[in-house]
Design a protein that fits this description.
four-stranded mixed sheet; alpha+beta; single chain; about 20% strand
Length: about 150
Amino acid sequence: MKTIVVSRLYVAKVFGNVEVTRTDFFVYADETTGEVVDTFLASKWEDDVTDVIEDSVMTAFGRDVTYDVFYDEVAVRELDTAAANPLAYKTADVVPTILVTIHREPASGDEALVRTWMAALKENDMLRHAEVHVDYVAKNGEILNDGTPLILSF
C-alpha cells in the first residue's frame, strides 16, 4: 500500500458496488498524520458480521430489537497484512462491539438470554469474540433502565 500525504483535509464517501461488496466506506486525510486512510475493512467487517448474526439476533430477542456492529477502524488498520483481509473478521484480534437495542423494559432473564446468545455465536463459529452492549429504549425513544446498558463480552 502506498501512502499519500495531503495538505488539505477532505472526506469522501464511497458507495459499495452491489455486485462486488455492497459496503459503503469513507476515505479521508488523517488530521494527525496527513495520510489518506479509508474505513473499507472495518466497514466490510461490520457489514459481514451484521449479516451473519441477523437470524440469531431475531431468534434470541424477537423482532422488537435493533442492532449495530462496530469495529475500531484504527485497530483494524493497524493489523498486519495477513489479518487485514475482508474475510478475517472471525480470526483477527480486533473485538467487534455489538449494540443491541431492545424496545421494552428489562426482564429478569435478559442477562442469561444474552449469555446464551453469545455462546451460540461462538459455538456456531459466527464470531470468536465480541463485546455486547444491550440498551432498553421504548418505541417512542424514551431511554429505559436509567440508561444503564447491560455489557457482556466473550
